[in-house]
Specification:
Elements: H1 4-19, H2 23-43, H3 50-76
Helix pairs in contact: 1-2, 2-3
Length: about 80
């Protein structure tokens, strides 16, 4: 399998997140980018790149929390 594809997907989703104006869509793209980046960091090297995996996991948690907050806020207004 071409593991570099995960890197390209990750960076493409990051670029998309910079282009969109809707903050919810931005965060969804950022979560997708982080998931792809974790896959890339886990598969590309001889051993997993734990620094990148850890930071992207943190970004996923932050963005999922903000997505949940945004959805709850939209539902109450």
């Amino acid at each position: 399998m071409h593991y570099e594809l995960f890197g390209h997907i990750s960076y493409s989703l990051q670029a998309i997140s910079y282009l969109v104006r809707d903050i919810l869509l931005l965060r969804v793209a950022a979560v997708g980018a982080s998931i792809a980046e974790i896959s890339y960091d886990f598969l590309i090297a001889d051993r997993p790149l734990w620094v990148g995996i850890l930071w992207n996991f943190c970004f996923i948690v932050i963005n999922l929390g903000q997505i949940l907050y945004s959805l709850l806020e939209r539902g109450t207004t």
